[in-house]
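Cross-posted from the bioinformatics board.
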Amino acid sequence: MTWLKRLIIVFVLLDNFLLNFPKKILFKSRWVLAGKCKQCGKCCEEIYLKMTPNQISSKFFTNLAIRWISWLFDFILIRVEQDAGYLVFTCKHRLRDGRCGNYFWRPNICRNYPLVDYFEEPKMLPDCGFTAKLRH
Ligand code: SF4
Ligand code: SF4
């Protein structure tokens, strides 16, 4: 079923492109990303996916989301943070040296990390190669 996963990911990537293209041209964020990835893989150890209170209070929806994300992205559930509303995953493709073993087909959450289009100052992991600067 790898072909099906890849076909779905192509649509997801297209969706990501259509979402990010106007942001780059028309709706620029206050923050600009500087630096570059050191490929340490720390951001792949624990991947936090936010759910709404309604979503996480539904066992059916939560299980469906866990199955879908695990299948599509090859993520592995570590825990559910019920109160904070997070599903926390790790990834099968993280190599021992921290690099990505599925770089070409990596999901949007990986492509868009670290996100800087928030009003608050973005927070990076310690020793991350990226920093965020205010746009002049
Ligand atoms: S924590 Fe930062 S430097 Fe390390 S892999 Fe993630 S983005 Fe790259
Ligand atoms: S697909 Fe690659 S970049 Fe994304 S979480 Fe897995 S190892 Fe990290």
